[in-house]
Amino acid sequence: MTATAAVRGAAGSAAWADTLLLSFAQGGYVQAHPAILQPAEPFLDLSGEDIRKSLYLTTDASGEELCLRPDLTIPVARDYLASGRAGQPVGFSYLGPVFRYRGGQPSEFLQAGIESFGRQDRAAADAEMLALALEATSAFGLKDVEIRTGDVALFNALIDALDLYPVWRRRLIKDFSRKISLTEDIERLTLSTAPGRNEYEGVLAALAGSDRKAALALVTDLMSIAGTTIVGGRSVAEIADRFLEQSTLKGGALPRDALDIIKRFLAIAGHPDESVKQLRALARDAKLDLTAAIDQLESRIGFMAARGIDTKLVRFSTSFGRGLDYYTGFEFELHKKGNGVEPLVGGGRYDGLMTQLGSPTPIPAVGFSVWIEALTQYGQPASQGSAA
Question: Does the keyword Disulfide bond apply (predicted)?
């Protein structure tokens, strides 16, 4: 059975699938058909925790670890990089099954979406993704949706400007990507700057402020002397990171003024234009250079308006994130009003993913996924008479 036929059976109608794929094709996005069985390594290394813990894994005769594709972004990106058009501006659409353990829900479900590679006009490409995502919800008769947006590049720019120890930069950015522990971590750091005493205080003091490479070398040497490579399920690299974390905590690595700036930043939310004003005020007051990241946000807002998106309906939040480690900039979700949990559509910019997948040069990338189950639950094909 083809992907489109499977969708038709699940939804009980062919009209919405045809409409959705047609709208993508009219936008210049060629349909991709990546393999269902994929190498597991990219998903284990590059996806968010939610995807990593839900993979269906297997091993082939050669010992390579494989998985059923849990989403389609990485498979489409891998096929693009393997093609003769890698590095060129190309857009793809897709519609097909993905596989994740979801605890009581079907593990196989349908996903549609778009991936755009190689466009240098990032702000315009971001706005186009949001506009096409809104068109996808309209194809199901859903027009009154909540538009939630954020930009991890702003948070990264803030952390870089604060010039924190490398270990805390990594820790805070990782927490931001996970969406769940950043606030807790900040509160813990506020209370954790007082020095303590333990039997390895001297080692921690020596590591304070060190870069990860130096700490990894030290921990590797110490563990090789002890004849161990794994302790409590943690690798050498993980233990080195833990030592760095403890050493910077003991040294009070995050000053009070830096914590206050981060908290003020994370409190900015609301209309995008107003958020731009608040971000510029924060940068001015804190004497931080966030100009490039804020300019990119402001440019994106302008392109959204040019694409016909009513920016008054867009909610921006500096703390918004989607829980995927590979996002590098713009992120968004569309929700049915009144449903704060399950997104209808979700996407964003992931410029760093392409080099992580093996590209010798950086390639801009942005896209979104459509959650078919949610759309069919709340809407119906517009061609059949929508509820909007």
Answer: no
